[in-house]
Write a structure and sequence with these properties.
Blueprint lengths: L3 H10 L2 E3 L2 E3 L10 H10 L8 H16 L6 H45 L2
Antiparallel strand pairs: 1-2
């Protein structure tokens, strides 16, 4: 059995970084329907979450952002979402351009080699 000191230390170790400020998580009872829990169990790993708690935290933040969509607080929600989307698009485009440039360089090398062979 863990002592209260060990539990307190463990809970302090589970602190989460939020907007540059370290804060402890709050523990509270949550009652959900069995179907909801089954859905969470199925989906949380596919969302790259390490736990059901992380999945539910993300879901709550998402829903709060949805409710705030016509309010000034939306900027706090959308700014990280837009940054993540933009970063993904840029990385994908960068990879496609890199592959295309490599293919062009290979073709250009072959053409210059043939041109040099034709003209000795």
């Amino acid at each position: 059995m863990e002592s209260k000191v060990q539990k307190a230390k463990k809970n302090a170790d589970i602190a989460e970084e939020n907007d540059g400020v370290t804060a402890e998580k709050i523990k509270f009872p949550l009652y959900v329907f069995p179907e909801t829990m089954k859905t969470v169990d199925i989906l949380y790993k596919s969302d790259n979450c390490s736990s059901r708690t992380e999945f539910m935290e993300k879901a709550i933040r998402f829903y709060c952002g949805y409710l705030l969509q016509n309010k000034p607080e939306l900027v706090d929600y959308l700014a990280p979402q837009i940054a993540t989307l933009t970063e993904g698009i840029v990385k994908g485009t960068e990879q496609r351009l890199s592959r295309a440039m490599f293919k062009i360089a290979v073709e250009l090398g072959a053409i210059t080699h043939m041109l040099a062979a034709v003209h000795d």
